[in-house]
Amino acid sequence: MSKSWRILLALVAVFALVASACGNDDDDAPVSEPETAAPEDEPAPEPEPEPEDEPASEPEDEPASEPEPEPEEEDEPAPAPEPEEPSDPKIVELGGGAVIDIGECPDEWDNYAGVTDSEIRFGSSLPRSGALAGFGTIADGVGLYFDAVGPIGGRNVVMVARDDGYVPARTVTNVEEMIDVENLLGFAGILGSPNNLAVHDLLNENCIPQLFNLTGLPEWGDPTNYPWTTGALMSYETESRVWCQHVADELGSGATAAVLALGNDAGEAWRVAFNECAPEHGIEIVDEIKHDPQADSVGADVINLAASNADVIVVASSGAFCPQAVATVASLPWEPMMLVANGCQSIALFWVPIGPLANGVRMVNTQKDVSDSSLADDEWVQFVRSALEGQGIDPEAASHALGYVFGEVLHEVLLAAADMDGGINRTNVMRAMWQMDFDSRGALGNSPRRMDGANDSYMVEAGRMEELVVDADGARYVPVSDVISFEGETGTFGQ
After folding, report:
1. Mean pLDDT of the region 102-112
2. By the 8 A CB rule, do 202 and 471 touch?
3. Which residue has the higher pLDDT, 69 or 43?
């Protein structure tokens, strides 16, 4: 059969099926399709390929998916901080805005002067002769302290001292000569207000440390203008204010006072401060005398003051003048309260020579006196006495023991400087000095020795009112107040 006939027969069969379906629209039963035999010679058509699975459609009742939220804008990154200006290596911060500017130092200045492989060298100028000669061995005592405690980083601390007889012009000569020939890191423990003032500018202009001035002149607390200078004693202004408060507490308002003042910068600082605080406490100053620092005796001056019959005598002086004044008072009918400057604290040095005549002396004490019998069991006193005796020195002779008190402070300063970048040198010593903070074993009540540049410029701000008692049991100070602390309150010079 030809191909065209086969096609025709197939079309006829299709039309017949369609006609049959149209005639049975009302009949639910399906009409079976007649079987048509495939021609024997015609191969069965290949099945069409199954379509690939299409993804199932989502149900109509499911809600349409919500549009994804737009990403939130990220916080804008904080702007990078402005780069800090590099610190000036020539500026050394001391605290409270006070600085050392190395750029102002002389061209030939050496930050490591006085520091060798084996030594750290300091100079001092003190009176080894004259009325204040009792203080002449303080520098020796500082050296002995370091002999007792040993080297710092393998370096021995050496003190070079010269006698100035408490004459400022001789102090200047001593300092100038030592700068030229002794190779010093700086100076430590120059005694006397006028003596230190005489070399104040010289040492600051040459960027040379002037540490532990053995005077309470308020000017030593001025790191803004004199960053190379520090003091070692309670400010005379603070000491005078403690006197005023004590007189008011003991005698009440209306007390009268007579003042014997050393005729120099120190005596004037005491006198002015006491005159300022006296009215606030109801104290009337009825007489004043300024005495010659080079005088042989102040006995006649005390006799003149006795004519005032004041309730209080203030001995704002130092050295041998203190026991002279007290002994003269004891020889008179006059019986005032005797307030004496702290510089005359040493019992062995000043009061043993006049014995019971010293009974009743009162002062603001700030450090421990190794000749005070009431402190025989104190750890610091035992250390000092034992060390000096082992070095062949009588602890109660001269002022070697006072040197130990200041040696302890210098030791702390040098240890702190050694831990700074660059180690022990002039600028690090001054940084350590103005940032000092430790509890002193040599201070009454182990009071702190603390400073903070121009915020807190005085090392000694705590003391105790004590009265000297001399009897068969020895000589000793008896506290008449608790330790009075002004720590951090006395500020800086002029403020």
Report:
1. 97
2. no
3. 69
DSSP state, residue 317: -
Q: Are 375 and 369 in contact (CB under 8 A)?
A: yes
In tens, the pLDDT along 11-25 reads: 334 344 333 443 444
Closest alpha carbon to 363 in 349, 343, 334, 380: 343
| Domain range enclosing 149 | 88-234+375-460
Q: Is residue 356 part of a domain?
A: yes
Pair of tokens at residue 231: 């003091």
CA dihedral 477, 480, 485, 486 (to 10 degrees): -110
Confidence tier at 494 by pLDDT (50, 70, 90): confident
Angle at 223 between CA 219 and CA 224, to 5 degrees: 105
- Is 379 exposed, middle or buried (CB count within 10 Å of its CB: 0-12, 13-18, 19+)? exposed
Q: Which residue has the tokens 């005088």?
A: 295
pLDDT digits (tens, 9 = 90+) for 205-242: 999 999 999 999 999 999 999 999 999 999 999 999 99
Q: Check which CATH number belongs to the domain holding 331 and give it.
A: 3.40.50.2300
The b/e string for 438-447 (b: 16+ C-beta within 10 A; e otherwise) is bebbbbbbbb
Is the distance from CB of 275 to CB of 225 less than 8 angstroms? no
What is the Cα–Cα distance from 474 to 355, expressed in whole angstroms? 10
pTM: 0.81
Indicate the number of domains in the chain.
2
Q: Please count the residues of the chain.
A: 495
Q: CA 104, 106, 107, 113 torsion: positive or negative?
A: negative
Q: Which residue's entry shows tokens 């040599």? A: 442
Distance of alpha carbon 405 from alpha carbon 461, whole angstroms: 16
Q: How far apart are CA 152 and CA 134, in angstroms?
A: 29
Half-sphere exposure of 257 (CA within 13 A, CB side): 33
Q: How far apart are CA 202 and CA 206, in angstroms?
A: 6
| 422 — pLDDT class (breaks 50, 70, 90) | very high
DSSP string, 335-391: --EEEE-GGG--IIIIIGGGGGGGTTEEEEE-B--TT-GGGTT-HHHHHHHHHHHHT
Q: Are residues 101 and 186 both part of a single domain?
A: yes
How far from the centroid of its chain's Cα atoms is residue 245's Cα?
28
